[in-house]
Amino acid sequence: MPTFDLSTYNLAELKGLEFDVRQEIKARQQQEVSKAREQILGIARDAGLSDKDLIEAPRRRKPAS
What we know:
The structure is a single chain. The chain is mainly alpha-helical. The protein is 65% helix and 0% strand. The chain is elongated. The N and C termini lie far apart (46 Å).
């Protein structure tokens, strides 16, 4: 990963950079969730389940130890 010399940035530039990084992190997290959701739905469809079946399926609980 490339390194940046942040010592040449003033405080306003650093705060702007911080804001941009936070926004990009949020966007990437949303992309990852969407990608995971699509993968899960694809697996369900391959198993013959509809999206509705997957969402409404009863949850199994682990037996108490």
